[in-house]
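note to self: the first set is below, dont mix up w the second
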Amino acid sequence: MAEKSEKTTKVVPLKNRKCPTCGAPAQVEFKPFCCQRCADVDLGRWLKGGYRIPTDEVPGDIPGDVPGEDGPGEDG
């Protein structure tokens, strides 16, 4: 068996952060949120694209996809 070292490790608890949705203290059951409602609001924002990073790309642009280039197309 491993012997216990003479030095004891000090455990530092994490800071109790605030809910990112409403700012209330986070609860252990819903971390990092304060309640199920705030967790659901955040999930809704993710699903609706609220956290996307804006770009100049047009939806559907695929790098290397050149129109008229031989490859699979509508003609088969």
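second set (the one i keep forgetting abt)
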Amino acid sequence: MSGDEPLHRGRDRPARTVTDLRREDDPALAADGSDTRLAARCLAALLGVGAALGSLNLLIDGVLRPGPTRPVYAVTMAGLLVLGLVVLVRRRVNAATTATMVVVGDLVYVVVAESVTDPLRYASPLMLLFCCVAAAWFLGPRMLALHMALVVAACAAVLGRSYPDTASLLVQVTVNAAVLDLMTLVIFLLRRRVQRLLVHTVALSSTDPLTGLANRRSLVEQAPRIWKQARRDGERVAALVLDLDHFKRLNDAFGHAAGDDVLRCVSAALAATVRPTDVLARTGGEELVVLGLVADNSEARHLAERLRSAVAASGSEHHRKVTVSIGVALTRPGYGEDPADALWRLIDRADVAMYQAKQHGRDQVALAAAAVVPAPRVPGGPTPRAASGRT
């Protein structure tokens, strides 16, 4: 395998960012920005409350029109209640299901208005608030626009019986539909604002502010995904600990601003070199960690050599020649182990190997021996040997 040969197919795809990984694992950052279970509960509650309130009309004389409209009305309310129970039991809804239920709600309002004797008294356009709230909070822009158009059509169809005069009807439809659609739009915009703030907050808590890479917290959060994938594909998890050589000397000679510039350049070079499925994180100071899946030691070493070469070619305006020592450790995930604990044990082994690379001249890759057992890690504390200082 040559040094320029890709390790995996799809190498030409850009590496995923921390936010991309979070979106995959966290439903709260899905496309519609809402947890599907919460959405299911909310929609089930709206359907149940709407059916319960609507069913009260069956108990009041003079509300429903005589004839076949009464059984049609009863079946409609029962259908809403059943639909709410189904959603509650399934506890999950997708965008298409939510959009369908909102449209059905708009149509149900028209059925209710046609079933009562006086739509102005018993089927006010305010009944559409149920659908408007659901649409504003759960739908995307296209389906929201469709719902807003249906609101205008529903108001026109319902109020047509009460305002035969065209001018009066136009005024009433405009006022009612405008209020409902404006409220829908305001809630939608507020929801999008909340979503952007949430994504920004998650990014801040999971991203190193200097380099834009994943931080320690994000690295730990990705461990269960990587461990699960390794067991499924029969591969090994590789941890590569990278530590810049003579970084303290660089900071002393050129200042911390120059050191920060070097870290940014190195991080950009590494991010362009790692595979799309790898996790690249800055765990502190000049130490970075790459976590990914490999078949064997040879593939792990090849990846490490690619990263070492990328760092050597990165440079910066402050320091043209930058080198890195890399320690590599592999493990085959077992069932029942805690991925976070196993991750730090693996990183500790790679950390020991990285020190071996420094002791043998730096700017090289060292593989951890399987028998090496690093010193115990204190929860939340520094990595082993961190107190000795790195050069």
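remember for set 2: Residues 216-388 form a domain with the Alpha-Beta Plaits fold (CATH 3.30.70.270).
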